[in-house]
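Model: Ready when you are.
Researcher: Fold this.
Model:
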Amino acid sequence: MHRNSILAAAAGLALSLGASAAAATTTIVLNFDDLTGTGLVPTEYGGVIFGDDFSHYDTPATGFPPASGLTTVYANYQKYRPGLEATLSFRFNELVRFDGAFFAGKTHVAYDFYRDGAKVGSAGHFNLGDHAAYYASGYDGLIDEVRLSGNAGNWVMDDLTYTTGVTTAVPEPTTWALMIFGFGGAGVALRSRRRAFA
């Protein structure tokens, strides 16, 4: 009976650990609306490291509307010449699931996803229009960098969305230990039962 209590406690602990991990995810939407006027997006903004790749403005232009509010971001023209293909990047302070962003413009954009400097996925070219549309990443893995390719000067981005606290499908070492302990305990309990009946 004592073994059954221990097994039940171990199972309860494993379930509570799994439930707390699932509840820890947070989806963040950067709408950039607290950035006013025109200028560079701060190097680190909303948990994202933009470096000097992106500028912002809060006066929507025809064909380049925001998804919400007034402010959109675009390629920094001091670094990327308008009219030419450019690859910009933004990084995250932790491993995240990049969900997507709204874009508007006259060209296409594409995502490439990186983790620890290695490319782990990509999303094809999205053809943009004169209204803001959401382009999902379509990649569920954890990443720390997104590289955005497109024709500088011909797109704007808004409502960048990512999720933190996402766990991978591979169990953590403590979860493995709990599972091994649980299976071992169940095996011991079954074996001792067989001996009692023999």
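Researcher: Now this one.
Model:
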Amino acid sequence: MIAGLLFLAFAFFAVAQAATVRNGGQTAADAAALGAAEDDRRQFFDGFLDAVEAARGWQDWLAAGAPLTGDGCGAAAHFADRNRSDLLTCDPVTRDGDLGYRVGIETRFDTGRTIVPGADNRTAKATATAVLRPRCVADGPDDDGTGDDGTDGGESEDNGTGTGGGDSDGGTGDDSDGSDDTDGDSAEEIRLRCDGEDLTIDPEHAGRDLKPSDLFSVVLVE
């Protein structure tokens, strides 16, 4: 009777230990997939900031459509290792148009010795897929709008004193207006719509006011 109860207790412990290993393996796989996608997110975010500073091409980075040169699978291996697991596979994937990674891992920890036949020292394997999703779209004038504003400013100058006006007056007006146009271009705000909410970006302070999660989300998918 007592021996039977002890056997059941050890058997339940073996089952619980196996479940712990499986759960730990899935956690490692999830972390590896998310880490790979988050590495891409950082690259898209940095590319967006650089394009905003250059005042061109930021829409491609915002839509996660620009080419990347990073190592998402390297990040996956790093996060798998942090969870005491080895990265077995790592493949770029696309889910409903969203870029991501599917990874497979095997744990370095195991069930240990048990009294259940065939359950000794069993590791766990698990897979996970994570994708990066752009959260924002341009709302209102884009980079071309900045150029239009500059053109409009030039037309207003022509329609003011006119070409035939005094050279001294015209020169003074051109200098001041040119300075204003430059200031206006540098301060041109970028208006975005992010998950139904408005987001306004000041290009001069974009790196200070934004973080990657403002523009992109990283999620696990089936």
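Researcher: Key takeaway?
Model: The two ends are 47 Å apart (CA to CA).
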